[in-house]
């Protein structure tokens, strides 16, 4: 077993089994790190909790819902406006979130009255919104508040409202993935089958595990519409509460993120006989194969093929341009969940990048299996790394860029490694053919950014950064300044006051246009 032991974690020997290096001849049984286990005490994990997985990932993208957390204010603050789940109703769910603000006295005497008061106040504050989701937190779970009973009371008093209760306190699972499961099962138990939809097509799907990050869902919905398919509901990006109550009438569940939403698909198959079809919206070939599969299910392959040919002809030349310039650049693929395997091979094949590491914070071993299988030999696979392990991996692997979340991404920037936000994107959407080109553009811009290149210079000890792709700075005196700013680079270096680095942009990458000095 090619375990990788981090120097910073030698005092936690259990961590050794959570990281492996994929070497020649290894199969999945001998190079799979331990995963989806309780965090080892002392390792200072960067994971989220089960409450976060339920509210932040699954629930909050529903657009026409008052999202209220029954617990301390910090829980709500931590899950508010941290992803770009846009919607077509003015982004109500991003602008507003509610908390009961449970404090010490409520822990002692109970907080059920406080919850009921907050529910009624929230509906009065937002009279156009008649739907609500209540999320339980650790504090109110421990004191035993009966949230379901309070919700029933309010619905009796206010007949035009409907309330969904998600009992997913932070301790309900090893990571946020436990919360994914909780809210999936709660939704089908409480709400699916309570609304009958209008069917307008012979081909009807639920689009599941899609969260409309910067418009991803709109891109995919456009493809389905061009194929003549009715999207009955989207679980849950830009999703409507009542549409999601009618999921039982779809002909097919099309599943994108298997890590967060396969549970509801499996239950819909068991309870209503709706088949499940896994797809992938990232990359030209995976997306094309997915559209063909959906078309094959309904017998409309020709419609799918027409879209594939049109989009590929339009966008493939642009992707090839970026692939030529990204060839061989090293990337750490540290996204957290299903993107681990959605992206692992396609960014190598279609963008020319080389994946040197994969990791997951909340993924299961099945996610790691697929990710390791799809990346190259030599890749370092890590389960639930902490900040110090991440920094050590960056020092060892020296990647050109990482794809990860905001917290580890900001740490990477401090050590000179650019990052793209794998969870909320930089300039999305990244799904679809145009979106995949947009992703490649963001990678190119991050790696070749002039500001990023400048950030690599340590002016305290490395004033002449000849190994960073710049012209050697010419040290000059005040008397020679006029000559220097006119573009002269042939001056003899000697100690002086000014430090001039002309034509930085042109030296960073040849694609940047060479600019003349204003003095010339």
Q: Radius of gyration from the CA trace?
A: 26 Å
Number of strands: 16
**The named CATH superfamily of the largest domain:** Nitrogenase molybdenum iron protein domain
Cα separation of the termini: 63 Å
- What percentage of residues falls in helices of 4 or more residues? 40-55%
Whole-number tally of structural domains: 4
CATH class of the largest domain: Alpha Beta
Please report which band the strand proportion falls in: under 5%, 5-15%, 15-25%, 25-35%, 35-45% or over 45%: 5-15%
Unreliable stretches covering 5 or more consecutive residues: 465-520
On the 0 to 100 scale, the average pLDDT is 88
CATH architecture level-2 label of the largest domain: 3-Layer(aba) Sandwich
In the sheet with the most strands, the strands line up as 1-12-11-10-13-14
Tell me the major beta sheet: 6 strands, mixed
Shape: globular
**How many individual helices?**
22
* CATH topology (fold) name of the largest domain: Rossmann fold
Q: Helices and strands: which structural class?
A: alpha/beta
Family: Belongs to the NifD/NifK/NifE/NifN family.
Cofactor: [8Fe-7S] cluster
Subunit structure: Hexamer of two alpha, two beta, and two delta chains.
Catalytic activity: N2 + 8 reduced [2Fe-2S]-[ferredoxin] + 16 ATP + 16 H2O = H2 + 8 oxidized [2Fe-2S]-[ferredoxin] + 2 NH4(+) + 16 ADP + 16 phosphate + 6 H(+)
